[in-house]
Amino acid sequence: MMIPEEIHNIAVIGISHRDAPVPVREHFVIPSGYRRQFFDACREAGCLQVIPVFTCNRTELIAVTDNPDKLLAVMLAGMSADRELFRKYGVIRTGRQAVEHVYRMALGLESQVPGDVQIIKQVKQAYEQACSSQMAGSVLHRLMQSVFRAHKRSRTETDFGSGSASIAYAAVLFAKRNQPDLQHKKVLLVGTGKIGRVTCKNLLKMGVRDITLINRSRENAEKLGNRYQLSAMPMSELPAQVRRADVIIAATGADRPVITKELFSDQCQNEHHKSGDFRNSNKVLIDLSLPRNVDPEVDNITGVEVIHLDMLQLQQNQALRSRMAEIPAVEKIISDELQEFAEWLHDRRNVPAIRQLRDRLESVQSREMSRWADVQDEQTRRRIQHLTHRICRKILAQNIQHIRA
Fold first, then answer.
1. Which three-class secondary structure state does DSSP give residue 286?
2. How far apart are CA 214 and CA 235, in angstroms?
3. Cβ atoms within 10 A of the Cβ of 381, count?
4. If you write DSSP's letter for every residue of 185-198 in order, what string do you get?
């Protein structure tokens, strides 16, 4: 594969579930308040093309830069992490390795659940935010269009995206394994964003009907609740609903835990008084958020089991087996699209020379046409102009091939 020099300035800086557990990844979350300043900080550091991708499993910057270390400093400035922690768990990819990673990440090959449909939506959202801040640039714009095309091909030309297989689905499967009669249990879903909505749909498909929705914006919770005829409660009802629920799934964008041990204090005392052993309550909490929405201290409460992102393992169901079988075909699509992107990068450096040659040819044509200014026959003038234009185009085409070679 032809790898142009320009590709070496493309870098991916970040951390993911592949190398860092949840307690570490929490330190690499950029607070929502800093994200507004992030692009300004990138500009001040001389990086004018950057797309920040923030998901529950990764924080990564896709950028065009000749100084990744400087961009890393910008990223760490808004986090509770430091360089030593990044050195231990983070990764800086450059050149072809970086570009190939962007394809693999966006198509779901690097997801905790291969082919997870959420990641491409998150990448598109990150790209749109960069575009609105004029931080995508021509190189990243072209790369993203190629990535989106590769994703579409992976869905239309293969079965990589077929069946139910996602983190949200894995969470519901875990709840069902832990609670075999899940359809008769009381489920509390805290957070009705993208992950929350997908989780809710999966719960309904499993036959669960007693689902209570709580969201920071009650309006959003009620909107989802009205769609599926489910109860929606304000955040003030969280303590009561936590005590009531058998299964709690948290998927909010909060910067700190919303499920704390204090919410269980009364219930612990009541359950202990009734049965002498809180383990009879068998309450399950599944945390799909980063930073974690469930305080780690909750896991020390007897009778409460806390499951976080890294503990979720999707069963080897038919959907996942089908996706795994399609990975070679998806990698072939990535190889094809990466080759086309590399060729575009290679041709891009020839644009100034091609433009200069075209301008010179047009100038020659204009001067030659001025010699025929006295010709009275307009049809003859148009024919001469058309002929000289065709000659210039052929000369330009031949020279473009020569320049590219």
1. strand
2. 6
3. 14
4. S-EEEE--SHHHHH
Query: What's the pLDDT at 78?
Result: 80
pLDDT tens digits, residue range 169-221?
888 888 888 788 888 999 999 999 888 998 999 899 889 999 999 998 888 99
- Cα–Cα distance, 228 to 209 (Å, whole number): 9
* Residues 170 and 249: beta-carbon distance below 8 Å: no
The position carrying tokens 């990975």 is 327
Residue 50, H or E segment: strand 49-54
Average pLDDT over residues 284-291: 90
Judged on CB neighbours under 10 Å (0-12, 13-18, 19+), 38 is buried
Least Cα distance to 267 among 245, 294, 292, 290 occurs for: 245
SS3 300: helix
> What number of CA atoms fall less than 13 Å from residue 195's CA on the CB side?
26
Residues 6+ apart with CB under 8 A from 124: 148
C-alpha closest to that of 100 among 5, 17, 12, 9: 12
CB within 8 Å of 123: residues ≥ 6 apart: 53, 105, 106, 144, 147
d(CA 27, CA 85): 9
**What is the pLDDT, as a whole number, of residue 271?**
44
Tell me what percent of the chain is helix, strand and coil, each rounded to the nearest 5: 60, 10, 30
